[in-house]
Specification:
Radius of gyration: 32 Å
CATH class of the largest domain: Alpha Beta
Largest sheet: 8 strands, parallel
Structural class: alpha/beta
CATH architecture of the largest domain: Alpha-Beta Barrel
Strand content: 15-25%
Helix content: 25-40%
Shape: elongated
Distance between the termini: 51 Å
Number of domains: 2
CATH superfamily of the largest domain: Aldolase class I
Number of helices: 13
Length: 384
Amino acid sequence: MDSDSSNDNLTTTTSTIMRRLSEDKFVLIAEIGVNYYDIATKEGITPMEAAKLMIREAKEAGIHAVKFQTYKAGTLAAKASPYYWDINEEPTRSQYELFKKFDSFGYDEYKELKEYCDETGIEFLSTAFDYDSADYLDELMQVYKISSSDLSNLPFIEHQAKKNKPIIMSVGASDLPEIEAAVDTIRAVSEQPIVLMHCVLEYPTPLKDANLLKILSLKRQFPELYIGYSDHTKPTDNCDVIKTAYNLGAQCIEKHFTLDKTLKGNDHYHAMDPYDARRILEAINELDIIRGSGELNCLETEMTARANARRSIVADGNIPVGTVITESMLTFKRPGTGISPDRLFEVVGKAALTDIEDDTIITADMIGKAADDDGAGNTHYTEV
C-alpha cells in the first residue's frame, strides 16, 4: 500500500479514489460529515475554518479523500422523525432537530472547500441528500457517494447515476434484492465504476454486529464491482476491524473523522482521529508486505534454502567405472546441488564414466550413455 500522501495533484478530471482502486491500492476516506461544527465550537473558530483544519489534518495523516454531507434538514427529515443513534452520546431525539444544527453550508461553502482540497492535495466529495445538492455538487466532485439511507430511493439514485460518474454506495440495513435493484438502477443509465460499501447502521457498531463476512458475500454476488467498507465501530490501536475488512476484500475504507473523539454528539464518538488514521495506514502497509504478490514461484530469498533443503540423486554404495546404473544403486539425500530426483530417468540405464564412491552426489559429468559392445570384445562409453 502506497499512501501517495504527497503526490496527489488533483485536477477537475482526476479522482484519487478511482485511480487507486484501478491500481489495486488501498483507499482511506475520512468522513468529516458535519463534525467540523463541533470542532469550530471547541476551538473558537468558524465552521469554515474548522472544516479546513480537518482537511489539513486528514492530508497530513495520509488520508486519500475527505467526504462531507450536504443537506438541509427540511428536505431530509420530517419534524417528527425519531432518532436511531446512541442517545448517551448524542442526546438529540429528533433527526430534524439534529440535522438543523448542521445544515448552514450551501454551494458557495462547498465550492470553497473543494478548492481548498485541491490546493491541499486531497480529494473532495460530499454525500448529497437532495436533488439540489446533487446537482450543484456535480461540478465539484468526480465521484458520487450514496448513503445507505437512500438505497431504496431509486429515483434519487438514478438522478445521480445520470451524472455519469463513478458511484460509491453504502448498503447498510439492506437485503440482497434491494442492493441488486439499486445496482440495476445505476447500470440502466451508467457504465461508470461502482463501489459497494458494506455498512452497519448502528452507531457505534459493536464488534459482534460488524458482520465482516458480508464483504465476501458482496464480492461473490457482485464480482464486477469494487467492494469497500464504511466502518462505524470504535477505533482500536490494533486496527483489527479494518485489517480484517481489508483482508476479506474491502479495498476502500470510509470512516468518520474527528479531531476530538471525546466530544459529545453527532459522529465523534465512533470516529477515527489523525492518530487512528496513521495507525490504519501503517497496518495496511504491513498487511500488504505480509500478503505479498501471490505469484506462484520461488522467491529469490528462498533460493539458498531451496538448494540445500532439497535432495539430489546419491550413490547408495560404490559404483565402479563402466557399471550400468540401476535404481537400486541410488538414493536421494540433501543438498539439492546435484541431479534432482525428478530427473532419475536421466541417470538410470547410464554407465559410470568414473568410479563413484558411496554417498557421492551424482553429477552429469560422472555418467554417460549405456555401454555397448562393438562385437570384438571392446566396450565403449559415450559421454552425455
